[in-house]
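Provenance

Sequences were taken from public entries as deposited. Structures were produced by running a predictor on each sequence independently, with no templates supplied. The record for Translocation/assembly module TamB from Thiothrix lacustris is shown for reference.
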Amino acid sequence: MNQWLKHLLINPLLVIFLLLLLVLGSLAFLTLSQTGTRLLVNNAPYFVAGLTLENVEGTLATGLKASRIRWESDSAILEADNVDVDSQVEVASPPTLRVSRLLADKLVIRLPESQEAAASSPFELMSIALPLNLDARQIRIKELEVWQGEHPLRLRDVQLDAQAHDGKLYLDNLQAELYDGQGKVDVALDGTMQLDKPHELALRVAVDANSTNWGVGTAKANVGGELLQYTLDMTADWAYAAYPRYQGTLQGKGSFADLAVTQLQLTGAAGALSATGQVDWQDALIWQAEVKGSQLNPAPFLKDWPAALDVQLRSGGTLAQGKLQATTLNVMRLQGKLREYPVDITGQGDWNGKVINLQALDAKVGDNRLLANGAASDKLDINWQIDAPKLAQLDPRLRGNAKGKGTLQGQLDGSQLQLDVADLSGKVEGYDLNAKGKLAWGDAKLAAQDVVIQSGGNRLDVSGQATAPFDLRWKVDAPNLAKAWKGLEGSLQGEGIFKGKLEAPEIQADLTGSKLRYQDYRLGALDLQAQHATR
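Predicted structure for Translocation/assembly module TamB:
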């Protein structure tokens, strides 16, 4: 998520302003003569700190070339290869540099890696002092790469037309194409920016995408204020993968380290959503949000759950180095209908990185209800209770009812879990069902302890290890299998042991039965005493 925010909110602005820095900064150090060119190239850091130029040939009056232009700071490294400029200077006060063509084979921007971001400073663009006016046309960069970690953001066919005079940059046109082999995203930008700090700006951005990775749609944004305290007003019409198309608006204020969302609105076939909050990504991804939704329908994501839900919730948390450090969630209201059944859910919980506190969960769907509460630090201890008289309201494939209670205990990371069913009873598909016992998971093994399943006067007892190597002991007393499950007939009594692996089991069994049948398969009578071990 942190990387997505950097690509979607930070990197595009960095690319724009670093590109402008390359064009404006480097051209400011080239003069009419070879001697003057060498002089200003050698003193480039006086104008822009961290800027160096290599193998510069020619003059502005006749055109010039540079094999490499490099700018380095604590927050970014920029390198451009094979820069070729056609230009001329108009003598005036101040003089005007007219660039009729500028070509560069490749521009690479390297940003700090995620683990270095906390120790790095936020991106900052220094004041740019140009000794002349600028009129630049047909600036073309064949390939642009933005690196942060192992996966670059690649753009091609970057085109720029711009002017600079009276301390202001006039960006007439900036276009680029984002590509990754899964489609493309076209980006266009125009506007103005002051060259001196704090860099007041007024920019317009347009995006047109047709990409498997990024989605299909259009977006427009107006960026105002100052470079490190900008205002953002954006509209979008977007669809991703097979999910519904959404129309959205976003207003906020931000910097290269955070964004305060004053209003986010999304409207589409799966409902409407609005949110306000704060997102900070300088040292870690930190968020605080209040969300409201109406007529939300999860069916596009969960096809068996068509619904119309209204929701109000608060959420906050911290995500650092890909791990969730802390989070809070308060579901103040989740109401509506699932199919034609009413839904009413409330809940509140938090996690501080070590302890989960589920203060309360009360979920009602139709006539069914689930209650849960508990806490977990290094160990889980959650109490649950279910009363579901109409299971079909939850899933049409389920017919019947269920009622029970129990606990869920174990390790927070899921390496060890124990489900203790104190009592679970009901009727499924017309058959009575009662179950109790414990299931334990640990060391990638599943074990059953005193598990008892009863249906229609029939009983099955199971204990032992239920994963390879197996060590299961079972006992069955089923005088009337027809009352146990659909398709079964007859009676079956006995007990046995199942050990080892499926491909080489050790089996002991003592079974008797009569009139045995399952659907169209008839066995009749059974009297079996068996002992089998594969060597």
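The chain is about 10% helix and 65% strand.
Helices lie at 2-27, 34-42, 44-47, 114-117.
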